[in-house]
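pasting for the record
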Amino acid sequence: MSESVDSRGASRAVLFTIVLVTAYSAIYMILMRHEGRPELANPVNAVYWVIMTMTTVGYGDIVFRSPVGYLFSIVVSLTGIVMVFAFVLPGLVTPWFEHLGRELPERVPEWMSDHILICGYGPMVERLTERLDEMGIRFAIVESRESVARGIFKKYTTVWGDPSDVQVLRNANISMARMVMVNYTDEVNADIVLTIREISGVEIIAMVEDLRHSRFLSYAGASRVLSPKTMLGTFVAQISTPSCGECVFPGAVQLFGTLSLAEMPVFPGSPLAGRAISDPLLVQTGASVVGIWKRGEFTPRPSWDDILSSGTVILAVGDSEQLMRLRLLGAGDDKSRRFLVIGYGDVGQRLVRVLCEHGIIPVVVDRRDLATDRFEHVMGDGYSEDALIRAGIKDASCIMIMLNNDHDAIYATLVARNLNPDAFIIARANHLLSTEKLYRAGADYVASVPLVASKMLFTMVIPASEDLTILYEGLELRRYEVRRRSAMAHRTLKDLALIERFGCTAVAIDRAGDAILALSGETEILPGDVLALLGPPGSMDRFSRVFGDGG
């Protein structure tokens, strides 16, 4: 933010200087003609004289001879002195030299211990570092790229250096670290893992771009190897059709007992489209709707009168049978749906593989000649209107945009929505900042690679005793045990004013092993209950400050 403010200030200073030089040059030419020397009254001489005078160089080759000219020369000279010392030096020159001379940190504080060491900052760990910082969990980042290190060292504890260098790792107190994450390319990660194993037996979590390389990283010494892109491809395949496995709920979070929290998209042709949440068809599933997504806008605890439409994503709580009934209704007749996959990179390949394994043969659009008979392939750019029409986009009911570049994905989403207003569009985001743009472009569901990565890493970083789960972008689930002296005990949900006061909502209550899903404002909270709440991180933090951990 400060950098943008500085750049705007510099732009205004440059504009002001140009205007001032132009005005002084015009006055110079008027005065020279007044003195009877029109041969010197031209724009080149004018600009030259003004700049030489303002910078106090004053070669003396062009001078005024009249009292008015002397006075004007004094004004221009004083103006130049003021500008140089008041604006140029402190506003432009000094910060520039400070930036050049500012040293990046090359070691962490000596006292730092039991910290998480992250080798390589990028989109994959961006959300994780934000949440770790918010929760006060110690971590340090080892970053070899100077531009990246300069962008984060004021915000996070950073070590500038090559993490495959033993001394750099020692400067990061690796001997005192709780665990290490490596987040470069697969080849660089292997080098880093081997270096770490020379000096430490610490737990190493390696991020891998290509799942086929995981065995090499394990052989190098990685404790665990994660492939967020592979996980994302599987997730998209599973969420797009119930045919991908009975009682498989991608991204589902276990609450307590047999209850889980899961997402259920409403696809074109679903019998749920056009029905209210109070409709018997939905109520008879036994699942409880705790929230709905519509183009990225989340509504907690929607009213009974809210109408579901094609493209809505339901957030529901229930056991496996209840959720499966709801999922089948949301999918409608998935066998008659036409699937279109745009992009056949790492995520697209995994997505297509899982779909084909379950008897769903999609049409794939990719600029390369894939030379395969496993599925229909159309060559062309994923954002090419001609290629998408040849692929049958107007007849597709589910369009999955899995392009590796977010700019391309956003444009492809705009084109796809324009060509097929009724299709359910799932788009991949490689950066968190692209999520909102993809929703505005027309996506019904955005699958974020960084969010998948942060969820996978978060479960490994946070101790099992923490009753916290990162869900989707901007949402968390927390469980609070209500003790005898808790401020929540013997109060109703209406008394807590969860949505009005904190911006979160109650999902379910575990009471002596029995799950309560039918919650209302009159539901009383008793000592011994476990209350599951859903909401943005800031809302959950505010609730925790008021009611603590339930005690």
